[in-house]
Amino acid sequence: MKKEEKTIEEIEKMLQEVDQKKEEYFLGWQREKADFLNYKKQEFERLKGTLCIAKESVFEEIIPILDNFRLAEKAISEDDKNNKSVIGLLMIKKQLEDALKALGLEEIESIGKPFDPSSHEAIEEVENGEAGIVTEEIEKGYYYNGKVLRPSKVKVGK
Amino acid sequence: MTKVLGIDLGTAITKSASIVNGEPKALENREGSILTPSIIAQTKGGERVVGILAQRQAITNPKNTISAVKRFIGRRFSDPEVQKELKLLPYETREKSDGGVEVKMGDKWYNPIEISSMILQKIKADAKDKLGEDVKNVVITCPANFDDSQRKATIAAGEIAGFNVLRVINEPTAAALAYGFGKKDAQKILVYDFGGGTFDVTILDVSPEVVEVLATGGEAHLGGNDFDQKIIDWILAEFKKEQGIDLFKDALALQRLKEAAEKAKTELSSAMETNINLPFITSDADGPKHLEYKLSRSQFDSMTSDLIAKSIDRVEKTLKEIKMDKSEINEVILVGGTTLVPAAREAVKNFFGKEPNKSINPEEVVAIGAAIEAEILTAKEEGRTPEGDIKSVLLLDVLPLSLGIETLGGVSTPMITKNTTVPTTGSQVFSTAVDNQPSVEINVLQGERSMAADNRSLGKFILDGIPPAPRGIPQVEVKFDIDANGVLTVTAIDKASNKSQSIKVEGSIGISKEDIEKMKKDAEVHAADDQKKKESIEAKNIADNLIYQSEKTIKDAGDKVTAEAKKEVEDKIAELKNIKDGDNIEEIKKKTEELSQAIQKVGAAMYQAQQQTQEPKKEEGPESAPEAETEKE
User: Exposed/middle/buried for A122, CB within 10 Å: 0-12, 13-18, 19+?
Assistant: First the structure.
């Protein structure tokens, strides 16, 4: 008889342990399932994000080309300004600007605006000009998708 | 489950990581970068900015832009080393009443602890943005040579920022944790940390219970910036030689050069050569000047060899200090962005005669290790299993080798490919190979080879009672199901009769490691051969099928085809039959194509003939309907 009682105790203990394990596994399984559903949602968001990142990396490669176009434009002498070939080349520059704009790239305004480190990067402080106001833009900055892709490099009045 | 953070609070750059979906991951800040400059500023408008924003306004506001405060945290003002550093600063400092350092920003004096806490506050806010919840529990890292007072100050900075600092651990220790070293046996680990501005080497003795720092060494001013400078100096010299113009005096040109040099260095990590193109870099009386150079990796390597030699020299000295031989080092870990330079990796590999650990991004590895430690400590506190270790509890195995069945011609057709996480199922529909075939044999295979004979057969069974039908018509669905214990159940069902047969195979996962490796190697070695064999069998199968179809078409067509066309098809069939069992795949394909064209011609002719016979009927109008009915019968 005694032996049997002990067995029941043992069984009860086992049952308790099994129950505990079941609970643990069940919760873990639920969590895993929830994690998976969340993961799917996140994956969708990530896909959207990936598209943006892909565009960003294209912008990062193309913008320096546009920078150089602008430098070239600045270097054109007065005599050459009416040269038809030069005008044609500048039309290509405009075409490039328009294409980037169509893809969602926005220019950051800087000249005459108060210096703002969230979209401007100060390269130099200059004596002539109003204090704290951007006097010159060295390199254009851009927004893409509501984010600063690259800040404008500017000179600021002292 | 409480979210945690690991923070690599650096002198120049701070990084953070967390556990996301069970995996440690470096977190981006609000500006979209993993790197946050350890810079604080009070702008002229009185606003406080941190990180990249502080860096962007630094030049207009040097007195109120505080950087590199880590050099002073928990240290005495009178310390000669501190005194040396203080002389280089653009901002004001003074001795605090307790002997520490104070820095001035705006009109207020701050303790370095407060400044560090402002950086940590930004990390906290950005992490909340990213993870969607407030983070309390953190592990922060510090250099191995930080003393007790510096560590206490680091903890204080974390607490002021609103964190619960679980522990401050050494940066090299965090790197070792990220790689999971010392979990089983004690290991001697050397951490080679080549950052942007400093080089550090640390030798650790890592065991499951304790991590001991055996030695540290470093160069306070040796880093990635020196590599950039070498490129800049080279371009400046070349340009002067060619154009006679010194770009060093031109601030804007220099700025462009700096960016180009950094880009070139990064590109040379993967490319063997890079172009440095800077049109309109400057101009003189003759007009605009352009700069264009090619820089090869070997040129770059020879320019920077002294820098790398200096780091290896420091490694040697540090080993010597504790009288340790390099052969006693079990593992070498690469930390810091400069270790992405291939020559640096190569030098470390050659020095130790073994491959260093570099699979985790060297810029993130410290923060990742800290995040892992934070998760382990938090899980312990909460009495749960650390996230990321869940796999070991649930024992979710992956299939070591592909499972499949044998199909026509002895080809092994995979049903579930290797590396699939189990439990899982896979099914596919197959058919018969000959007319009126009453049964199919399912031979369950394991392995990566293309031919069934080369793979291991786990078991066979026969599904019979398939109703008589021409070949290709019956649909037999074969289903593979593996449960979490690796028990494989293969079921075959004939869809017409619903008859099914199945087999259970135990231990489809539990195969010895040696066997797995052997089978994988075999597959690699024989990949080309197998592919050829498989192609030849496939070609033969296609040929067989076409012969069968063609013979059937000709028979069914009866006198609807001209004798001439019939003869052509029959000739082509004979030709194909002659060669189809040979080894010449190209020839089989060619003859198959010829027969295919011949039979298509017959088909087209038959179709046309049918249309012609139908056309007059159409004119009869409504009477075509009953005609159709009789056809049905």
Answer: buried
Mutation to test the A interface, candidates B60, B61, B122, most A Cβ within 10 Å: B60
ipTM: 0.70
- Looking at the structure, tell me whether residues B204 and B193 fall in a common domain: yes
Q: Do B145 and B43 sit in the same domain of this protein? A: yes
Can you tell me the mean pLDDT for B464-484?
87
Kindly identify which residue of chain A lies nearest to residue B260, measuring between CA atoms: A64
B208 and B108 fall within a common domain: no
Q: Which domains does chain A have, with CATH numbers?
A: 106-158 (2.30.22.10)
Q: Is residue B382 part of a domain?
A: no
Contact B208, B182 (CB under 8 A): yes
Are A115 and A99 within 8 A, CB to CB?
Answer: no
d(CA B287, CA B280) in angstroms, rounded, equals: 9
Angstroms from B279 CA to nearest CA on chain A: 7
Domain range enclosing B259: 182-359
- B280 and B230 share a domain? yes
> Minimal CA–CA distance to B157: which of B132, B180, B138, B134?
B138
Work out the minimum CA distance from A150 to partner chain B, whole angstroms: 10
> Quick one: CA torsion of B557, B558, B559, B561, rounded to 10 degrees?
40
Task: Look at chain B and report how many structural domains it folds into.
Answer: 4
Q: Among B208, B78, B198, which Cα is nearest to B145's?
A: B198
**Chain-centre distance of CA A151, in angstroms?**
12
Q: How far is CA A18 from the centre of its chain?
A: 50
Asked whether B182 and B153 are in contact (CB, 8 A), the reply is no
Instruction: Write the CATH number for B162.
Output: 3.30.420.40
Q: What is the pLDDT of residues B301-351, one digit of tens each?
A: 999 999 999 999 999 999 999 999 999 999 999 999 999 999 999 999 999
Instruction: Provide the pLDDT confidence category of residue B632 given band limits of 50, 70 and 90.
Output: very low
Establish how many alpha carbons lie within 13 A of residue B311's alpha carbon, considering only the half-sphere containing its beta carbon: 31
What DSSP string describes A83-150?
-HHHHHHHHHHHHHHHHHHHTTEEEPP-TTSBP-TTTEEEEEEESSS-TTBEEEEEE--EEETTEEEE
Let me know whether B470 and B566 are in one domain.
Answer: no
Contact yes or no for B138/B162 (Cβ under 8 A): no
